[in-house]
Design brief:
alpha/beta, two-stranded antiparallel sheet
């Protein structure tokens, strides 16, 4: 009898144990944002990323599988600022009823840039010569800290039982980004202001420029598939020679063709690839937001030292 009572007691205690809630299903539009969301959410969430490592969000074309990812998510995180020109179509086709969170909400300052390409529409809906919002705000760590705050807020509202954990994760990450921001500024301070000039394959580092005092030039604007005009290439090569700029880079998700042509004609070498719109795979040098920023800053400083 005692054995029976003991068995019943054990069984009842097992039944009464709280069940672990399934991870909150979320979607992030591109790999950099997906990493930020995962760092804030930890094991409490399950993140699916639409545009993965080394992927190009500018030319991304959603598939039915992407629609299924969106349909089953509780939250979809996007950058906004026109970066995901395809998101409205995807959300509509998926009949998504959940929350759409724009992580760039609340920026103190947004940049504008001129869209040079008018022959192709990559989902941005821009016309030749049109002034558009520069969407690459994550290229300032100060803005990245805002993204983290917005992510934590959205996760806390969707999963109130774990709000304290999301906020704690965000506070830890915010501290790391603040320290990294100071490090980047110190590294770039090694280079005289007049020598902080860099050529990249497309115009993705404007916010980095504003935050850290580096001048970036690019043969093309926001679109990674745009082709520079012959006149534009000639002017850039002339400027590059006159100013002695030897820091020339392409981005991991962009074509090397234009930047290699530019470097060949200007007789300079191309540096290691930078990570602008996408992380590297896990075994690469930029597998997280922090790793990306540290890597990029290091390579930029190496390149700008050649300008001296």
């Amino acid at each position: 009898m005692r054995k029976l009572l003991a068995a019943i007691s054990i069984a009842m205690s097992i039944v009464s144990l709280p069940l672990h809630a399934a991870p909150l299903k979320v979607v992030a539009s591109f790999s950099i944002l997906g990493d930020m969301v995962k760092q804030v959410g930890g094991d409490l969430i399950e993140v699916e990323t639409l545009v993965g490592p080394d992927g190009d969000a500018h030319v991304f074309q959603p598939t039915p599988a992407d629609g299924k990812k969106v349909a089953r998510a509780s939250i979809v995180f996007i950058n906004g600022l026109g970066f995901e020109g395809w998101i409205e179509r995807l959300v509509k086709s998926a009949d998504y009823k959940g929350k759409l969170v724009t992580v760039s909400t609340g920026l103190n300052h947004t940049r504008t840039m001129t869209e040079e390409e008018d022959e192709h529409d990559h989902g941005h809906g821009h016309k030749h010569g049109t002034a558009v919002t520069d969407p690459h705000a994550w290229q300032s760590l100060s803005n990245g800290r805002l993204y983290i705050n917005n992510i934590a807020k959205a996760l806390s509202e969707a999963d109130t039982a774990h709000a304290a954990q999301y906020k704690a994760n965000a506070a830890k990450l915010d501290s790391e980004l603040a320290a990294l921001d100071s490090w980047v500024k110190a590294e770039i301070a090694q280079i005289p202001a007049s020598k902080r000039k860099v050529i990249t394959s497309h115009d993705a580092f404007g916010y980095f420029s504003d935050a850290y005092g580096v001048t970036f030039k690019a043969p093309v604007g926001i679109s990674t598939e745009a082709e520079p005009s012959a006149k534009g290439m000639k002017e850039m090569i002339t400027q590059l020679k006159q100013e002695g700029v030897k820091a020339v880079f392409f981005e991991n998700m962009a074509s090397e063709k234009v930047i290699k042509q530019l470097a060949e004609e200007a007789k300079v070498s191309v540096g290691a690839p930078l990570y602008a719109d996408a992380l590297s795979p896990k075994d690469g040098p930029a597998s997280s937001y922090q790793a990306m920023f540290k890597y990029n800053a290091g390579k930029l400083v190496e390149g700008m030292k050649l300008n001296q």
